[in-house]
Amino acid sequence: MAGFVVFHILILLLGIGIVTRIVPTQLVSTMLGYLHNTIGITTPPLEKMRMFALIWLGSVIVIVDGCLLLLLFITRLVNSG
Fold first, then answer.
1. Cα–Cα dist 80/75, whole Å
2. By CB neighbour count within 10 A (0-12 exposed, 13-18 middle, 19+ buried), where does 7 fall?
3. Residue 78, CB half-sphere, CA atoms under 13 Å: how many?
4. CA 8 to chain centre
5. Average pLDDT over residues 37-63
6. Can you tell me the distance from the alpha carbon of 22 to that of 34, in angstroms, rounded to the nearest whole number?
7. Residue 42 — φ and ψ, nearest 5°?
8. Per-residue pLDDT averaged across 24-39, rounded?
């Protein structure tokens, strides 16, 4: 449970760093470029890079929370049956 809280705090701090421009645009561009090339989609233009980074962070949080919720739901069904 502590790891889950730490994960959310780190993602929130990264998001704040991106919004306040503490994290350089070139670093964000490089990280998203690797991610987009791995998936096989085109990279966004440099001026929209911060918005796309925030969208990716939000997506990661939704996916991780959804997986954890599904895991808890399934384990409760198995333990109650």
1. 8
2. middle
3. 6
4. 9
5. 92
6. 20
7. -75, 150
8. 90
**What is the largest distance, in Å, between two alpha-carbon atoms of the chain?**
53
Helix or strand holding residue 8 (H, E): helix 2-19
Q: Is residue 14 a contact partner of residue 23, using CB atoms and an 8 Å limit?
A: yes
| CA 11 to the chain's CA centroid | 7
Distance, in Å, from the CA atom of 49 to the CA atom of 81, rounded to the nearest integer, reads 48
Residue 6 — φ and ψ, nearest 5°? -60, -40
Query: Structure tokens of 26?
Result: 């070139």
Structure tokens given for 17: 């760093």
Q: How high is the pLDDT of residue 81?
A: 67
Please check whether residue 21 is in contact with residue 12, taking contact to mean a CB–CB distance below 8 angstroms: no
Stretch 42-69: mean pLDDT: 93
